[in-house]
Amino acid sequence: MSREEISLPSPSPGTSRHLVVHRFGPRNRGQKVYLQAGLHGDEWPGMLVLQHLMVLLEQAERNHLLQGEILCVPFANPMGLAQNIAGYLAGRFDLGGTGNFNRSFGDLVTPVTQQVAGRLGSAADQNIALIRAALKESVASLPAHSEAEQLKRTLLSLSIDADLVLDLHCDDDALAHLYATKLQQDWARELAEVLGIEYVMVEDLQGVIAFDGTHLQVWHELAKRYPEFPIPMACHAATVEYRGQYDVQDDWASEDARRLYSYLIRFGVIAESPQDFPQPQVHVSPLEAIDLIKAPYAGLVTYRVPLGTYLHRDHPFGDLVLLNQPYPNQRIALVSQTEGYLFARTHRRLVRPGDLIAKIFGDRPLPDRPIGNLLQL
């Protein structure tokens, strides 16, 4: 294992920040895997998973079992980790004004298309090498005027040529789930089975693109623009949501790490027999089938049923208690607009109008659903 520190621009005189990258296995040989946690600085379970995983990878490296390079970035957002306000960590959005840390990684489609135009051929492996070289050059040319832009460009420079990219996140209060693209739906199901995840949401590569989709969009667009040339999806990428924000437990993280290690064996980057784990029943639905329950008024949220409950349409799963009413304990029932599983909910009990309260995993597309992975809040 080698450990690297990559400096970021100083946010203010007398201070500095850096990324830490742990590299395992041989460089420039075999497949490349990139794993990161904490892109949202207030999402911690994935950070613990990588701590457990890196112990396993270090042992595998000592035993000469690694057939490719594995990069682990155990905390991908030093900026978000430093945004402590009156004792509360605000790690999801850049307080400097650039928005969600998991959005706006820059346009790679335009410069890569310009670089490869007229140079693609009939050999898929040569096209992959050409496109990856163009991706690396395009990432290096992305603007980096602010610290947030520098952070995003640095993360992409580490990952853009990887065969597998997994971005580890979590929700507020949730069961483990996974976001992937419809183009890689079968692969996402297999990944979820090995990782022990029941709920998989698949989406189109349109609209707002997060970190995982940034690695896939170029391959998808080039394949559409140049159907006469073999251009495979040379990268597999997904966002893994390891339960809820406060589910930081060694027993869960240890098993999650062992399952992730087993998947890396199956992916072909570790020469070892995979461990067999109980496989869950995996549910796969399009993102537009996920019911988003939002607060109509301000009030206190209480829940009637636990996570994982199957809800029928108009089934009440909780209540919104209205505090400012003439009579006490006035409340509105929170009901599902579809049939499906209650898999995520807010851990905030005082909500404002429009706040997202719960997510229900249905299997039928609902009207007015956002394009892109806006559910990865």
Q: At the first level of CATH, what is the class of the largest domain? A: Alpha Beta
Q: Given the helix and strand composition, which structural class is it?
A: alpha+beta
Strand order within the widest sheet?
1-2-4-3-9-13-11-12-14
Number of helices: 8
Helix content: 25-40%
Average per-residue pLDDT, rounded, comes to 95
CATH arch. level architecture of the largest domain:
3-Layer(aba) Sandwich
Q: What would you call the shape?
A: globular
Strand portion: 25-35%
* Count of individual domains: 2
Rg value: 21 Å
Secondary structure blueprint with pairings:
Layout: E1 2-8, E2 17-24, E3 32-37, H1 45-62, E4 69-73, H2 78-81, E5 84-85, E6 88-89, E7 93-94, E8 99-100, H3 109-116, H4 124-140, H5 147-159, E9 164-171, E10 173-174, E11 177-181, H6 185-195, E12 199-203, H7 211-225, E13 236-244, H8 250-267, E14 283-286, E15 290-294, E16 299-303, E17 310-311, E18 316-322, E19 330-335, E20 340-345, E21 350-351, E22 356-362
Parallel strand pairs: 3-4, 3-9, 9-13, 11-12, 12-14
Antiparallel strand pairs: 1-2, 2-4, 5-6, 7-8, 10-20, 11-13, 15-22, 16-18, 16-21, 17-20, 18-19, 20-22
Helix pairs in contact: 1-8, 3-4
